[in-house]
Design a protein that fits this description.
single chain, 348 residues, alpha+beta, four-stranded parallel β-sheet, 19% helix
Amino acid sequence: MAAEYATFGLAPATRAGGVHTNGDFQVHRDFMDFVVDGRPLLFRLSDLDAVSPLASDVPPAIFTAQVRGLLLETDAPLPGGRYVIYGCPECADLACGAVTAVILRDGDDFVWRDFAWQTGAHADLELNGYHGIGPYRFAGADYRTALATLLDGTPHPRRRVLLIGARVAQLARLAAALRTIGIGADITQDARDVPADELRTYGAVAFGRAVTEDQRASVRRAFADAGVEVTHVDGLAPVVPVLVAQIEHALDRGPAERHRLTRLTANAAAADIEVTSPCRVRLTAYRLDRLHRTHVHEVFDGVLEPGGHRVALAAGAVKGEAYVVARTPESVLVTAVTRDGPGPVEPG
C-alpha cells in the first residue's frame, strides 16, 4: 500500500429538511460525518444529497452494527469488501445510489480505497469511480478510538422545538410541517407550565412575532431554571417554509467550519452568498403582499464554487416584505430582504 497517512475523525452533521413550494418535503437527518485530514469527506462530493450510515435516527442495534462493520468486525455488506460510506437520506436504498468504498486492514492500519458511485450489487470503477478521492490510510489506534466513541451511549441531538405564539392556527401548521420532515414540535403559551425534564428534550424554542418581551423573558427563565441551553428563534414571518428554515438552522449545532454555506444577505437588487467548497445551492424568495398572501419565486439552483457570489433578484420577487432562503444539501440560511443598495461582495 502506497497511500500516505491521513487523519480520521467524526463530526456531527445535518441533512437539512425542508418544505418545498410544490408541497413536497425532504426529511431532516442528523448523522456523523467522516472527517479526513480535517475536512468533511462529504465536502469532496459537490452535488451529493446523502448521509453516512451513522445517523441518529437509526435503531441502536443497526447503528452499532454499522460501527462494527466500519471496524471490520463483521463481513462487508457488498461484494468485494465494499461498504456504504454515504447513502440516500430518504430511504437508504442502494438502488437510489450510494458512495461505497473498499475498507481493509493493512497491518494495524485501516485503508479506504476504490471509492465509487454504486446502484447495484457490483461497482464499476471505470465508469463510476471517484478517481480523485483516496486511497486513505488511517492509523489503527486513532481510527478505532474515533469510532468507539459512538458506542459509549452519548445522547443524540435534541431534535424537538417548542413553539410559542399568539396565532394558534399558524403554529399548528408549522408544527405539522416540522413533524413531517422529522422534527418534533410542541405548542405552548407559557413554558413555566412545562416540566423541567420535558424542557430538557428541546433543542430550540421559537417565538412568534406577537410574543412580548416579558413572555420571552419568562420562557428564557424557565429553560435556565431547568439547566438547559436552547437556541432562541425569533420568527421572521408568518410563512411556514421560512419558519421551518429558521428552525432547521437553529437546530444545526455543528461547528461553523463544518458548514459549506457560511453567509447570506439580500437587498432589493441581489442576494450575496458565500460557500467554502463546491456545492449545489438553491435560493427561494418569499414575499408577503398587502393582503398578507405569500408569493414564492425560485431564484437560483446550481453548483457554486468556493467564494462569494451575487445572484440578481427580480424586483417582483422581493417587492415589499420579503425573505430569501438558501439551501445546500446539509444546511440552510434565511435572511430578510433589506431596502438598501447593493454593496461589494466580500472575498471568499
